[in-house]
Amino acid sequence: MAKPIILILGAIPILAAIFIVVPQLTRPEIQSSTVNSEDIMTLQYTKEHLQKISFGLTQSIGADTAEVLTIQNDGSAVYSLTKNGYSQPDVKYQLSQDELTKLKGLVKETGFVDIPDAVYQVKPDATNYEKYGIQATLNGKTVHLQWGDQNASQEFVPPIITQVQSSLDDIISEIIK
Q1: pTM for this model (two decimals)
Q2: What is the mean pLDDT of the chain?
Q3: Would you say 80 and 90 are in contact if contact means Cβ atoms under 8 Å apart?
Q4: Distance from C-alpha of 172 to C-alpha of 159, rounded to nearest angstrom
Q5: Residue 22 and residue 14: Cα distance in Å, rounded?
Q6: Taking the mean position of all CA atoms in its chain, how far away is CA 69?
Q7: Angle at which helices 97-109 and 159-176 cross, to 10°
Q8: Residue ranges of the domains in the chain?
Q9: Taking a C-beta distance cutoff of 8 angstroms, is the pair 46, 26 a contact?
Q10: pLDDT confidence bin for 27, thresholds 50/70/90
């Protein structure tokens, strides 16, 4: 009798995950029809590759790569890269009107700036992981979020955060190619 109950209890988190992931995969692109010309948005996205370094009795976490993408309301973007402690020259980029409208639509339509400021904790035993941060301002309302990649995170990072992260990573990929 105990085994069926354990199986049912074990299936609950799996079903919950399916109910969260499937709508995200099947949902069409975010509509940008809610974006108007008076919307003012700025974004600052940081991505750091962190490693835990052991010095015998003590440990330290250090970033061997840090990337910063800043996007202004007019679509101008600046990408900064620091690798092994050395800053690379900044790369300036201009987002197309379509890219900017999609990004504004994603932030506005999903209520991204209504997410409470949060720092999603990383597992204490994580040794090699990515850490992300976003500061988004839309029409004067600002949200600050920090999280580690899902494998290193102690907490569940909401899909809307990872969706915005993915969009910003795509922009970075386009800038550095």
Answers
A1: 0.75
A2: 83
A3: yes
A4: 20
A5: 12
A6: 12
A7: 170
A8: 32-176
A9: no
A10: low
